[in-house]
Amino acid sequence: DGRRPANPAFWWVNEEGEEVKWSFEELGFLSRKTANILTEACGLQRGDRVIAVLPRVPEWWLLNVACMRTGIVFIPGTSQLTAKDILYRLEASKAKCIITSDTLAPAVDSVVSDSQLLKSKLIVGRGNEDGWLNLQELL
């Protein structure tokens, strides 16, 4: 029919060659669902702060767009942070939610009891940890 295929809104490839492609429609749908998770399951509101200690996986961008949709402040952090660094950032930012991978969740749990404002913890990955919401399950 002479039409070109639509360019993806998001295209991610890891070292093993696995790909994730989302059209603009899919990115919109997934970011709205993620925004609902942040506001409903995590109990966040416009102006609240979220720390994301994640490698650059597709969910990192999805959470970033969801935060823009809701007016939640997205604070990225490198996955090389230590538990002490994470606690400092939680306290300095007054974040109400932390989002991290299943591999970093134990480091967060080791210091999270010292954080006064933290309301929710969201894990990105296949693992389940006590006291954590799982993004994949909620999506």
TrEMBL record:
> What Gene Ontology cellular component terms go with this record?
mitochondrial matrix
- In its UniProt entry, the species of origin is given as Neodrepanis coruscans (wattled asity)
Q: What PANTHER family does the entry give? A: ACYL-COENZYME A SYNTHETASE, ACYL-COENZYME A SYNTHETASE ACSM5, MITOCHONDRIAL
Q: Which family does it belong to?
A: Belongs to the ATP-dependent AMP-binding enzyme family.
Task: Provide the protein name.
Answer: medium-chain acyl-CoA ligase
Check the record and name the InterPro entries matching this protein.
Answer: AMP-dep_synth/lig_dom, ANL_N_sf, Mitochondrial_ACSM
The protein's enzyme class: ligase
Where does the record place the AMP-dependent synthetase/ligase domain? 3-128
